[in-house]
Amino acid sequence: MKARIKFKKSGALRFIGHLDVMRFFQKAMRRAGIPIAFTKGYSPHMIMSFASPLGIGHSSDSEYFDIELKEAVSGREAVKRLNEVMVEGMEVVSFRQIGEEKKMTGMAIVAAAEYLTTLKKGSLPDNWKEKISEFLAQPEIRIRKQTKRSENEVDIKPLIYKLEVTENCFYMQVAAGSVQNLKPELVMEAFCRFLEVEWETVDFHHHRLEMYADVGNGSGRELKSLEDMGWEMEIETA
Amino acid sequence: MRKLALNDEILLEIEKPARYIGNEVNSVNKDASKVDVRFAICFPDVYEIGMSHLGIQILYDMFNQREDVWCERVYSPWTDLDKVMRREQIPLFALESQDPVKDFDFLGITIQYEMCYTNILQILDLSQIPVHSEERTWEHPIVIGGGPCTYNPEPLAEFFDLFYIGEGETVYDELLDLYKSCRLEGTSRETFLEKAACIEGIYVPRFYEVSYDENGLLESFTRKIQSVPEKIKKQIVMDVTSAPYPMAPVVPFIKATQDRVVLEIQRGCIRGCRFCQAGMLYRPTRERDVETLKEYARAMLKNTGHEEISLSSLSSSDYSELKELVNFLIEEFQGEGVNISLPSLRIDAFSLDVMRQVQDIKKSSLTFAPEAGSQRLRDVVNKGLTEEMILDGAGQAFEGGWSKVKLYFMLGLPTETDEDMKEIARLSDRIARRYYEIPKEERHGKCQITASSSFFVPKPFTPFQWTAMCSSEEYIRRAYVVKHEFQEQLNRKSLKYNWHDADVTILEGVFARGDRRVGKVIEEAYRLGCLYDSWTETFCNEKWIEAFQNTNIDIEFYTTRERDLDELLPWDFIDIGVSKNFLKHEWERAVQGTITPNCRLKCYGCGAAQFGGGVCYEG
Ligand code: SF4
């Protein structure tokens, strides 16, 4: 039986990297006594897979990982037990059952992510809000993207699904996952270039709002949050 | 939300920011306004090393059990953050509250190895606390040193207000209560220190003075005031079973060196190897009750969520309930995917059987620590491991499917000859031969015998405390003798030999048996930029040499000089319970090559029986 866990990450926990978050939850599972399944062999490890990693320094309302359970548990009870063993800055939001299909878990299904981005250092020209539509109206948005091996210029426009202003922040929805992934930093870098703002003089904070899977069947995107793909899990308690 | 001492920009700029944010599972937060004493406890090395230390976890838990005390942790900032803190004048802070250490009541530093001495100065310096005890006032915390290196605290005497000699569980309450009442009454810092010096086990260097004769030898060590004791008595816990033990140790976010539950099964060691300081310091051997340990294992695994549990002691095989405990751990936890790691086990039928159950034979290796290559020299150092035992153990293991062996040796032991050195290679080869005696069809390819040697450093309170150590050149020469002999061996293709750095060893030698004058070198080396000397990537021997030259301190006076048995030694004012006479006898027996059986076979009356318990009263 598979379950999906959604959690929030904030405060000091923003400085804990992806691998350490995984280690943290492996130990949390034991502390909370969640009946998680293990692989076989000499060094058995928990069957657990994480969705798209969050950059160091970012906060999030919606981080996910999927696990394999040995037996059913009450989702509500599991959330409560996990939160009893969390630390400040880490909060479990939901614990839901998900489909058994292999390709449905973890990283494999992530298609988009949503961010709230705020300026925390430096300044933007007064008319930055109006400039967003101009920015998006460009035929292409080219930027140098660094990968592990090389650096090349790419057009990120198709990967920006939404870029809007809410109050004094940016709200964006961008491609995420193993096929195409766009970091919010890159969008802001491209935008600053466009505004002719020196990239080194500004700094942004990114807060992940949600992660989505694409459930559309070929004809256009149909995004559904990873949480909504699961359903409440209850067990009979005597 | 908790505040952080470092801003986002700094945290994103440095390596592993998780070292500095605190907030880990089981870390303790209290309301600072509701406690009387704020205690910063420090391991002067990087977070991952410091967090792996059991002693700190014990004291952290013990202090925080007191409602009037809040104990927090401090580690050395790594070199990247060190630079930032200096540049931006950020005072060193404790992890829990993120408050500056300089505002605390106490700064307790555990001193586990000599090569952390410059890091101690870094801690004081970054905390903006004067490095010399003399310059501190009530504006500053009381700086306490503890841990094995404090059995010769003299090189550090100027930097500490007081030293706690021995195991932390005994007189800390008394010290904290004294502090509280002194602060309440408004007594002077000096008066507090004077009263503290009267607590058993507490050494306050400023109340003692030393003089040297024309040859530079220690001439006298005397009290400046009569109210303080002449000798400082080591503190130990006799009932280790009911001593405090942390049921919920702090779980780091990043992987610490010791990323597991640690069960300390006993203190002390019955063996009496003559080079081993711990073996003398922690006498007598005291065991923890096995039923209590089982409960601890259960509670600690539950409270930490660790996936591994390990036993800790100087020689686990000597723990009388070992079988019972190990079988319990396997039965109880292995099914839950908990790894069981068993260091320092003697290789025999039982341990091989256990290892087969808990680890992958193909990947794991057997470990022996013969310390010396020849039986003659093993007798000198009283290492009760014979060649027969090694070959038998290895043989059984090879037949059971193992093919990797690790061997640990020391070079430069007293009376060592070239012949003894060469025996290291020959013994390694004989182990390999034993492997190739197994019919080819039953073997698993080639065997891999890896021998490593470190260089011997004579330590205070051992039978070798008077002996000369070698010069750096001589150590290297010896390593080459061994290396050359390895190339002569039949199975040389299955053998590997490596040795440790000799320059660091020399410095360890100076500090291990140094006196108060040596403090100047540490200060000078720190001024020249020495830091993290136990790390190869940061150790800089040239700067150290420069520091010795600048302070006119002669390295060889402390290292290659053989001490007279009647010489007044800098640490003679400490009473560890083991008598100097016993150490002298042991030295004489060593020279004759006479072994001394372990405490369980025969008591040689070392003096530790005065503590009234442990192995001395077993029979
Ligand atoms: S008094 Fe005897 S039994 Fe006790 S520690 Fe010393 S030698 Fe061992």
Major β-sheet annotation of chain A? 10 strands, mixed
| Gap from first CA to last CA of chain B | 58 Å
**Do you know the CATH architecture of the largest domain in chain A?**
2-Layer Sandwich
Percent of residues in helices of chain A: 10-25%
CA distance, first residue to last residue of chain A: 22 Å
Largest sheet entry of chain B: 6 strands, mixed
> The CATH topology of one domain in chain B, please?
Rossmann fold
* Average pLDDT over all residues of chain A: 91
Percent of residues of chain A in beta strands?
Answer: 25-35%
Instruction: Going across the biggest sheet of chain B, name each strand in turn.
Output: 2-1-3-4-5-6
The helix tally of chain A amounts to 4
- What is the CATH H-level superfamily of one domain in chain B? Response regulator
Assess the beta-strand content of chain B as a share of residues.
5-15%
Q: How many runs of DSSP E, i.e. beta strands of chain A?
A: 12
Structure description:
The complex is a heterodimer of chains A (238) and B (619). With 238 residues, chain A is α+β, with helices and mostly antiparallel strands. Chain A has 2 domains: 2-108, Alpha-Beta Plaits (2-Layer Sandwich); 110-224, Alpha-Beta Plaits (2-Layer Sandwich). Helix content of chain A is 20%, strand content 35%. Chain A has 4 helices and 12 strands, in the order E-H-E-E-H-E-E-H-E-E-E-E-H-E-E-E. In chain A, strand 6 (142-146) and strand 7 form a beta hairpin. The two termini of chain A are 22 Å apart. The model of chain A has no long low-confidence stretch (mean pLDDT 91). With 619 residues, chain B is α/β, with parallel strands linked by helices. Among the domains of chain B are: 8-233, Response regulator (Rossmann fold), CATH 3.40.50; 260-359 and 577-619, Transcription Regulator spoIIAA (2-Layer Sandwich), CATH 3.30.750.210. Chain B has helices spanning 8-13, 47-50, 54-65, 79-88, 117-127, 172-185, 189-196, 277-281, 290-304, 322-333, 349-358, 375-380, 387-399, 418-436, 472-487, 502-512, 519-527, 541-551, 555-558, 580-592, and strands spanning 37-43, 69-75, 106-110, 142-146, 162-164, 202-203, 208-212, 218-223, 232-233, 261-264, 266-267, 286-287, 308-312, 339-341, 366-371, 404-411, 448-455, 495-499, 574-575. Chain B has a 6-stranded mixed β-sheet. Chain B has a 4-stranded parallel β-sheet with strand order 15-16-17-18, covered by helices on one side. The model of chain B has no long low-confidence stretch (mean pLDDT 95). The interface between A and B is medium-sized, with 32 and 30 residues. The complex binds iron/sulfur cluster (SF4). Residues 283-284, 599, 603-606, 608-609, 615-616 of chain B line the site of iron/sulfur cluster.
